Fold this protein.
Amino acid sequence: MTDPAPRPTTDRRPAHAPKDHPALPPRRIGILIANLGTPDGYDYWSMRRYLSEFLSDRRVIDYSPWLWQPLLQAVILTSRPFRSGRNYKMIWNHEAGESPLMTITKAQAAKLAAAAEAEWGAEIMVDYAMRYGNPSTASKVKAMVAAGCDRILFFPLYPQYAGATVATANDAFFKALMEETWQPASRTVPPYFDSPLYIDALAASVDRAVSAMEQPPELLICSYHGLPERYLAQGDPYHCQCQKTTRLLRERLGWEKERVATTFQSRFGPEEWLKPYTVKEVARLAETGVRRIAVVAPAFAADCIETLEEINGEIRESFMHAGGESFTYIPCLNDDDAHIAALMAAIRDNLAGWVS
């Protein structure tokens, strides 16, 4: 989406400027939400471009480029785009010609734009960007500046902070600002992993799912995207914030400690990642006699390949193959009204002093 709010029709000129001074667009405040990203298609070259950008990010893979890039370009990217492309094809929004992540992010931006306009009027411009792929963060910053935004609030849609998610999204935003002759004032929204409204929205989604089941799950698995263990040792707070989100969710649900577990998914590469690994843990649970589980993904603001294909595919299969009988995936909060309210609360807090 681009510039959803009504635009004032009269451009402005600096006070006391000569008549031939170029007109300036009306002053506005930009709110730019950002998600991880998506390939433009599930064909080989679209997937290769996307994966190359993603896996070349030193925040994601911090191995020396002298060692990593030859392996990535000559080995990994010759085969992985085919496998990833098949997975994307299974979940692709064929009607819209885009990934579910793109569809959901557009819907989130549209609802946030409507809420912002209702609260602050045409002074606010809401748009979305992707850290990898299109639309790029740089293109959206440029568009906002051209539209008159002299202040931009940048909001990475990750509840918990990690260097490989929030930090790299902020890096792309700051790099985009470096290209602007007249830089807008800028702010970034901090993680909202313990926001009461976010926890309430998560709990409501679990309650709805459980109430629709014939029998309640014996265990709720909170599956978070993983990170190498050494990132934790280097000071990344992600693991601690995930654990706190699980605890707050359990307390909000009023469930016993034994009924809620924290696991980590999406391991990549040979080194040890945060444990327990979701795909192995659900199999272990089934082998010990657990027959009914539900899985929620609190680290994802929108359903994507890691939830729709990995959790609801590979991880489901691991549980059922090991003897499980009932596996329920609880969708991400996506554009649920309670989620939008939580995001708006974070936006409102971080616009303090810019809007009345």
User: Anything to note?
Assistant: The domain at 28-192+338-350 is CATH 3.40.50.1400 (Rossmann fold). The first strand starts at residue 28 and ends at 38.
